[in-house]
Amino acid sequence: MSFPKGFYWGGATAANQLEGGWQEGGKGISCPDICTGGTATKSKRITPVLEEGTFYPSHDAIDHYHRFKEDIALFAEMGFKMYRFSIAWTRIFPNGDEDKPNEAGLKFYEELIDECLKYGIEPLITISHYEVPFNLTKKWNSWVDRRMIDCYLNFCRAIFTRYKGKVKYWLTFNEINSATTAMGAFLGQGILNEIKEMEFMDQVDVPQNRFQGLHHQFIASALAVKMAHEIDPNYQVGCMQIMATSYGLTCNPNDQIENQQKNHLMNWFCSDVQCRGKYPNYIKRYFKENNIEIKMEEGDEEILATGPVDFYTCSYYMSNCQTADKTKEGGKGNILGGVPNPYLKASDWGWQIDPVGLRYSLNEIYDRYQLPIFVVENGLGAYDTIDEDGKVRDSYRIDYLRSHIEQMHEAVLDGVDLKGYTPWGCIDLVSASTGEMAKRYGFIFVERYDDGTGDFARRRKESFYWYKKVIETNGEDLK
């Protein structure tokens, strides 16, 4: 049961969730830096004015900024072939709109990239991973304004030029389709419709702004693909989507239509634009019925047509069901909507565990686009504890990952061109949705806690040794 030769096994992180050093090396303030901590039951808050005495998890995170060599050595010990990480926009352009990049920021990531290459680890870099300069939110309400495109391309030009010959794979925007939901406006786009303190899960939503912002991101992505190929023909640029797999709750045809419409909006709209180079016909009715009018400039359609991505990547954590019966209620943890599937179990956070859904999704994606695919996020958030003997026994995580890897292999046998797998949070980090450390995903335990205590010490979990064996055998030994 081995995977194709050259398969990229690795792990994934994001700058604002692990680096810390939030004002070191000339870094500016990004949107995550104004988000407080939270828990599974208490939402984190957005505080446009930083509050003295309030805990902001991104400010220290897990101190990767000072410990990246130690962390990458641990990744190498597991045998990583690829490490997916992001570049903090505000390390390169502190305010987002400067003409010249910050040399200290460029140097930091160059050292990080070189450390990966020293161990034979291929970098897969996300350019914008839920991290917009807060200055641009205050100035223009971020991606609502078309001027963001030039700021983003200036960022791309700086890193494409600096890391030429060292990096091959890039992703334009993390989980770009998160902006088809109200939660994604601030998280993915930096859009804050009222500049005041509010709960992260209860933002003021203006759908017109989200979808106009998406259009500007689509244009930016297409132009970034073109720029990358011009700077280095070896560059490969991909999209990154949330794969929110869903099924009709019953065989009632109305449930199937409901599911199809939700799939169109959540799972296919953004990737249809980025992979096919044009807006799909089905979105026109949605825009009309929701009073959304996309303002395009002359030449935008041509830009999209000439800038499709080279490959497709996605996150995959869970699935849900859709029904036309409005009396049905959603279940705990269904943050992307829908209702629970009665055939599935759930994580501590209520996310339903569906490994077969990954095989199903990979087939759907590949049949639709015929592009190489990477699964760049997948994992189990859980309450990990250190036993009296100092060990972290996370057999539940091993079970989760094993079952998903088995289904990825089934997809490969189905004919899917699957290139790599980088499970999320390969080292414990701050949760993007809740702002907590207690929701741990990693193969490596980090002694950092939600009250701000902990010495950041790293220790290998049971899953660390298991994943090392998986990589050594190219997926043959999953026991």
Automatic annotation (TrEMBL):
This is 6-phospho-beta-glucosidase. One of its GO terms (molecular function) is beta-glucosidase activity. PANTHER family: 6-PHOSPHO-BETA-GLUCOSIDASE, GLYCOSYL HYDROLASE. The active site is at residue 377. It comes from the Bacteria. Belongs to the glycosyl hydrolase 1 family. Gene3D superfamilies: Glycosidases.
